[in-house]
Amino acid sequence: MNLRRLPLTREISLAVLVYLYVPVVVLIVYSFNANRTATVWSETSLDWYRKILVNPSIRDATWNSLVLATAAGIGATLLALAAALGMKSRFRGAGLVEAVLNAPLILPEVVVAVATLMLFVGIGIDMGLTAMIPAHIAFCIPFAYLPIKARLEGMNPSLEEAAQDLYANRFVTFRRVTLPLLWPGIMAGFTLAFVTSLDDFLTSFFLSGPGSTTLPVYIFSAIRAGITPEINAISTIMLIVSVALVVTSFLLGKMRR
Amino acid sequence: MSATSPFRRAGLVGPALLVVLILVGVPLGIMAWVSLLGRGATIGVDWQSAPSFANYTKLIWEEDFDGTLLFNPTYLSILWRSVWQAAATTVICVALGLPVALWMSSLSRGARDIAVLLITIPFWTNLLVRNYAWLIILREDGAVSKAANAVWPFGPVQLLYNDAAILIGLVYSFLPFMILPIYAGFEKFDWRLLEAAYDLGANRRRALTRVIVPLAMPGIIAGSMLVFIPSLGSFVTAAILGGGKSMMMGNLIQLQFGQSRNWPFGAAISVVLLALMMLVLMGIAIWKNRQERKT
Asked: What's the pLDDT tens digit per position in B58-109?
């Protein structure tokens, strides 16, 4: 008898796994349904995938999402990398600084989004990518910061010391020793920031202007208009992309130190 | 690279810190100020208006035509719904998360990693997509509704656009946040202690209440924070599965910045939401302190 197996733990766990995966499976299955109403199954078809490929508003929204996620991912990763390097040695107030950097993780997004909206309207920044990019960078910082910080903490400091003993200056040490060792953490951080921005709905919902709709904002308005297999098809693609990116980030994080 | 000089450090940490302060801190400050002002004529805020707590009293009382204050339960009911939905979500997540975490920790090494991956994958799919999936399952002409109506003898069953639908969606959105911290606590545990408990004559009930639950407590607390706070501030779930009838605070805030065009009132609700969140965080911190002093 396995002592940890209390009665029902296994049954509950299997039920939870079913609960977690049934919606995902239903979503994917219905994206291959030929029937427009999405309620009755008629036959298997790829029509909806074909339709979303030629739909210009989806194409534009995808492009906007990718531009935004790339800009936010790069911006947040650079800022987070510098911050993580600066936070390497302990100092007074380090805890407070870290709390501020990670604040976007716990603050309700709807509150931060409307507050940012008020700031931008107040100082006269037009809604659109110019408003969304800085806002996305801000809330992506902790997602890039945490993996980089973790990698940095797991690094052996004697390697950098050895480089300096061998007369490498600070820049050379950073370029030839620190950066290569840190690289998997940086890539993991970038991927997480990229996915977070790509998946974001609320901030973009409040800050997007005409012509700068992102894919999640498009999906939300489509859901409001009614259930269609088209939404299932876009959702399925987004699901695959997110999972692929997160698994990549996970593997990068696990890479040999 | 030995000790970093304060100037170097400021140069490295400064930019990220400034970005977060300017784009998160400053807006929250502006919001607190706006919550005291009057609404603008067309949109936004009347910056010239005298600050008052009118937007906060509006949450409870409504001014009648002749100026008398009448109790108005509309907004309070939404606040109350947010709090109990978040609380119910947290309780259900504990009830499901504890057995799952326990089961995961009883698996072999390789199977554990797979189980962790299986629990996390749905969580990484888009929040909109996850809630939309439940919209498909629970919709009126779907198989589940038909089955429910066939079984239920008292009139038609409506599965969507009610509090139960929101609860299902919230639990679905945040369950991994509960399972993983509890599991993390079990993973490091020396299970021979449980064996010892059994050897010393503990039955399963006692083993559960005396060994497993205390062991899971830090994970349950951490998980409750990670589930309660985002549930309280959630927008997407109620927007999709609540269908405008069952609103939560997040939806009420959005409404003020959308159709209602009453930014100062929206700002006041946001401040209340932040205050509720702070209260919960402080409560947990105090509780934790007391627990630590006990041991």
From this structure: 888 887 777 788 888 889 999 999 999 999 999 999 999 999 998 888 888 8
Provide the domain count of chain A. Answer: 1
Q: Which of A118, A133, A165 to mutate to test the interface with B (most CBs of B within 10 A)?
A: A118
Flag whether B22 is in a domain. Answer: no
Does the pTM of the predicted model rise above 0.95?
A: no
ipTM of the complex: 0.88
Is B253 in contact with A109 (Cβ distance < 8 A)?
no
The predicted-structure confidence for B254-270, as pLDDT tens digits, reads as follows: 999 988 888 999 999 99
The domain that holds B217 is classified in CATH as: 1.10.3720.10
Most B CBs within 10 A among A111, A132, A250, hence the mutation to make, goes to: A111
Q: Would you call B132 an interface residue with chain A, using a CB distance cutoff of 8 Å?
A: yes
Which chain A residues have a beta carbon less than 8 Å from that of B258?
Answer: none
In this complex, the residue of A80, A112, A118 whose CB is nearest that of residue B16 is A80
Q: Which structural domain, as residue segments, surrounds residue A115?
A: 55-254
Question: Closest partner residue to A8 among B99, B233, B257, by Cβ?
Answer: B99
In a domain, A23, yes or no: no
Q: How far is B71 from chain A (nearest CA, A)?
A: 26
- What's the Cα-to-Cα distance from B103 to each of A88, B152, B174, B197, rounded to whole Å? 38, 34, 19, 19
Range of the domain at B190: 73-294
CB-CB under 8 Å, B136 with A8: no
**How do residues B23-58 score in pLDDT, each as one tens digit?**
999 999 999 999 999 888 776 788 888 888 888 988
Interaxial angle between packed helices B109-120 and B73-105, expressed in degrees from 0 to 180 and rounded to the nearest 10? 160
Q: How far is CA B28 from the centre of its chain?
A: 19
Given a cut of 80, whether residue B248 has pLDDT beyond it is: yes
Q: Which residue of B has its CA nearest to A218?
A: B128
**CA B74 vs CA B70, B191, B245: distances in Å:** 12, 51, 12
In a domain, A177, yes or no: yes
Whether A6 sits inside 8 A of B233 (CB atoms) is: no
Divide the 257 residues of chain A into consecutive groups of 10 and give the mean pLDDT of each group: 66 91 88 71 79 88 94 96 87 87 91 94 90 95 92 83 82 83 88 90 91 91 85 88 79 65
> Is residue B240, in this structure, part of any structural domain at all?
yes
Provide the pLDDT for residue A43.
Answer: 74
